[in-house]
């Protein structure tokens, strides 16, 4: 756990990560589903690597496989880092 | 009777530019795409063909294949929909190495940042079948789809394999080709270490001073169709795959068998498959790598297979203009051959100036030549050529083409 991890900071890192793997930036929001963003399991592994680098939170495939929206991943990372 | 196989679309990305016309027109004009000892496909911009997401999910070699396939399918009239039931359409794309640049990059990540930082896209980027997989997804192809790997013969093996698929009834049409993007530090060092590449950085096939091949990159893609099915849908064929054959030297890891016996046998079998004799050959698109060994053994194989006609037929090497595209070479050169026949023009072997002892055939030095003026073609008669491809490992693949 790192000091100063805020929901806004997690949201920003995840939004940037999704854009990095090719999601359209103006379609990215907390409510957006990964299906709608055309983000698949390979993309989520890349985003998980970015999250681990930034916050030290390790997300395994099982952690994210049932998550449907961007907001659910943000909430999970915030919960794990506090 | 065996099904005939026609070519209805071609597309190329090469060091001479983007497009099959750029390839043939610039080569005929005597332009060379080699700079500073390598042939970069530097006019290719992936963003003209694919989204950023598609681009980052494709190694450069697969990106080349995508670009070339878009051109080929558009020319065939396939841009909107496949004209056949998708499971009756195949895709075979050859490569010598696959996604080498991606492999090297991720090897660096592994060393510097550890296993957990390695990209989950590494395997799909580097795998040798990535070109075929990318085209199948892009174009909705559901039939036989795979890569072929036979070093510098892979592109020709892909064309031959697709031809056999149609002849054998496994497909009504097949998208075939080859793609390579191996202008990397490791490949350059490795080819140099084995003495294959040119220390002078000059590609001059069949010239006495030739000292190795010059590496190039790019892709060539052809649309093959069953001739009757193509006719039924009103397609205009560019040419025809008349014959194909492949043999193996079983001689040495890299060196061709000096007498060219098995390469000659591949030429003979391809002509037999095509049902044409040496006297009917108007042009030979040689493998012509600019290595001391290949150009000598290939000359021997042509003399053996074509007999007296070997001295009559004009012979030129595409590698004099674009370098050696490895697993893409056979497909790009099949396209150059068809285009040359359609233009009734033999492009030259650029850089050829000095005759080597025993290399005494007509390598078409200096400038392009019209086939009619040379007395080899006449009027509207379709012209016939062979395109040779030989790969490390002793793989020989020969195509006989007509246009």
Topology:
The complex is a heterodimer of chains A (82) and B (403).
Chain A: H1 7-20, H2 41-55, H3 61-64, H4 70-80
Helix pairs in contact in A: 1-2, 1-4
Chain B: E1 5-14, E2 17-18, H1 20-28, H2 52-56, H3 60-75, E3 89-94, H4 100-113, H5 122-126, H6 130-139, E4 145-148, H7 154-167, E5 173-180, H8 185-193, E6 218-226, H9 227-232, E7 239-248, H10 261-274, E8 283-285, H11 292-306, H12 309-312, E9 315-316, H13 319-322, H14 329-342, E10 345-346, E11 369-370, E12 384-391, E13 395-402
Parallel strand pairs in B: 3-4, 3-5, 8-9, 8-12
Antiparallel strand pairs in B: 1-2, 1-6, 1-7, 5-6, 7-13, 10-11, 12-13
Helix pairs in contact in B: 1-14, 3-6, 7-14, 10-11
Summarize the structure.
The complex is a heterodimer of chains A (82) and B (403). Chain A has helices at residues 7-20, 41-55, 61-64, 70-80.
Write a structural description:
The complex is a heterodimer of chains A (82) and B (403). The termini of chain A are close together. By secondary structure, chain A is mostly helical. Chain A has four helices and no strands. Chain A is globular and about 30 Å long. Chain B is globular, with a radius of gyration of 20 Å. In chain B, the strands form two sheets. In chain B, strands 1, 2, 3, 4, 5, 6, 7, 8, 9, 12 and 13 form an eleven-stranded mixed β-sheet that branches. In chain B, strands 10-11 form a two-stranded antiparallel sheet. Chain B is built from 14 helices and 13 strands. Chain A binds chain B through residues 21-23, 38, 42, 45-46, 49, 52-53, and chain B through 51-54, 56-57, 116-117, 119-121, 124.
């Amino acid at each position: 756990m790192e000091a100063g991890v805020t929901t806004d900071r997690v949201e920003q890192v995840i939004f940037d990560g999704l854009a990095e793997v090719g999601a359209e930036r103006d379609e990215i929001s907390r409510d957006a589903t990964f299906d709608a963003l055309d983000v698949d399991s390979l993309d989520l592994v890349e985003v998980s690597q970015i999250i681990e680098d930034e916050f030290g939170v390790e997300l395994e495939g099982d952690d994210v496989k049932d998550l449907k929206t961007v907001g659910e991943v943000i909430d999970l990372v915030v919960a794990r880092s506090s | 009777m065996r099904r005939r196989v026609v070519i209805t679309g071609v597309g190329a990305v090469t060091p001479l530019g983007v497009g099959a016309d750029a390839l043939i027109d610039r080569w005929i004009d005597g332009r060379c795409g080699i700079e500073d000892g390598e042939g970069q496909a530097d006019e290719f911009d992936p963003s003209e063909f694919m989204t950023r997401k598609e681009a980052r999910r494709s190694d450069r070699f697969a990106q080349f294949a995508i670009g070339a396939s878009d051109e080929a399918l558009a020319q065939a009239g396939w841009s909107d929909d496949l004209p056949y039931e998708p499971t009756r359409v195949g895709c075979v794309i050859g490569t010598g190495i696959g996604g080498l640049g991606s492999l090297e990059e991720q090897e660096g990540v592994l060393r510097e940042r550890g296993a957990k930082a390695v990209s989950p896209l590494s395997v799909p980027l580097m795998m040798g079948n990535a070109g075929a997989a990318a085209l199948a997804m892009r174009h909705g192809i559901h039939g036989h789809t795979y890569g072929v790997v036979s070093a510098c013969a892979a592109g020709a093996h892909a064309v031959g394999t697709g031809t056999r698929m149609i002849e054998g009834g496994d497909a009504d049409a097949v998208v075939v080709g080859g793609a390579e993007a191996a202008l990397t530090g490791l490949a350059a060092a490795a080819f140099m270490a084995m003495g294959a590449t040119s220390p002078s950085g000059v590609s001059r096939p069949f010239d006495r001073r030739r000292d190795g091949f010059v590496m190039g990159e790019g892709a060539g893609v052809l649309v093959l169709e069953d001739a009757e099915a193509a006719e039924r849908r009103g397609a205009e064929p560019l040419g025809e795959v008349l014959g194909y054959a492949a043999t193996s030297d079983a001689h040495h890891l890299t060196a061709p068998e000096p007498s060219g016996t098995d390469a000659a046998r591949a030429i003979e079998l391809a002509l037999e498959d095509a049902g044409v004799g040496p006297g009917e050959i108007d042009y030979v698109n040689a493998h012509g790598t600019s290595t001391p060994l290949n150009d000598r053994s290939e000359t021997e194989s042509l003399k053996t297979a074509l007999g007296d006609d070997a001295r009559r037929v004009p012979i030129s090497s595409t590698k004099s203009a674009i370098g050696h595209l490895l697993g893409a070479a056979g497909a790009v050169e099949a396209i150059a051959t068809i285009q040359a026949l359609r233009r009734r023009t033999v492009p030259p072997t650029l850089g050829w100036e000095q005759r080597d002892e025993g290399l005494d055939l007509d390598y078409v030095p200096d400038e392009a030549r019209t086939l009619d003026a040379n007395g080899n073609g006449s009027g509207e008669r379709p012209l016939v050529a062979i395109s040779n491809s030989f790969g490390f490992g002793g793989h020989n693949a020969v195509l006989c083409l007509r246009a």
